Amino acid sequence: MSAHENLEHVEHAEHASHGGNKKIALLISVLALFLAFSETLGKSAQTAAITENVHANDLWAFYQAKHIRGTILRTGAEHMQIEAECATDPAVKARLDKTAKEWIDAAKRYDDDPEGGEGRKQLMAKAQAAEHKRGLDMARYHNYEFASAAFQIGIVLASAQVITSMVVLGWLSGLLGVAGVALTSLGLWAPHALDFLTHTAEH
Fold this sequence. Notes:
Blueprint: H1 3-18, H2 22-86, H3 90-111, H4 120-164, H5 167-189, H6 195-202
Helix pairs in contact: 1-2, 2-3, 2-4, 2-5, 4-5
C-alpha cells in the first residue's frame, strides 16, 4: 500500500469524523490498519515464494548435473572394465580395474551421498521441500491478496456511507472487514484452505 493511499484513508476517516460519523471513521481506520498488515504479509510471502522457486530450480539443475556426471562415469567404467579384461599385462589390468572401481564408487556417491548431502537422492528431497515451501508461500500470498481486496472495498463502501448516509453500506463494509481478517488468518495458519478458488481464478 503506497503512502498516497494511506493518506487517502486518513482523509476519509477525518472527513467521516468531522461529519459526525465517528463509528464510520473508526471503521475506516481499522480497515486501513488491517489493509497495511495484509499488504505487508502479502509482499513478504511473494518474496519468499520467488526465493524458494529460484532455490528449487538451482537444486534441480544440480540434480541433473549429478545425473549426467554419474552416467558418464558409469559408461567410462564399463569401457575400462572391458579394456581390463582384454589386458595381458597384470599391472595394467590391476590399474584399469582400480580406476573402474573408483569411477563406479563415485557414480554411486552421485546417486546417494548421506554424509555430504549432495547425492541425487538428497538433492531431490531438498528440491521437493523447496517446492513445497514455494507452494505454501504462494497460497499465503493469494490469501493476503484476497484479504487486501476485501479491506480496500470495505474502505470504499464505508467512505460511500459518509456521502450517501446509507447504513447498509457500513454493514457491508464491516462484513468485508471480517472477511478480510478471516482471509488473513487463513494465510497465516491454513494457506491451502482456499486453493480451489485460486485454481478457478487461474483457469
